[in-house]
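sry for the spam today, last one i promise. struct tokens for design, 67 residues
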């Protein structure tokens, strides 16, 4: 399942957005995550998404990456 909600328009001259992704839960067979796309000038949320993923491989590793 993949769901996206667009809350505000993205203007053509917007060259940078912040993306905040979090994993709510990883079970044996299913993982749940959410994303917020944020406009950096006023920190306004312009889109949200949620993703439910069936995991077919029994071995998963999570990397924590920050840019």
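last one done:
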């Amino acid at each position: 399942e993949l769901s996206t909600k667009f809350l505000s328009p993205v203007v053509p001259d917007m060259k940078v957005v912040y993306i905040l992704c979090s994993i709510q839960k990883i079970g044996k067979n299913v993982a749940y995550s959410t994303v917020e796309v944020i406009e950096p000038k006023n920190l306004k949320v312009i889109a949200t998404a949620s993703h439910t993923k069936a995991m077919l491989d029994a071995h998963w590793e999570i990397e924590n990456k920050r840019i």
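The first strand starts at residue 2 and ends at 6. ok im logging off now
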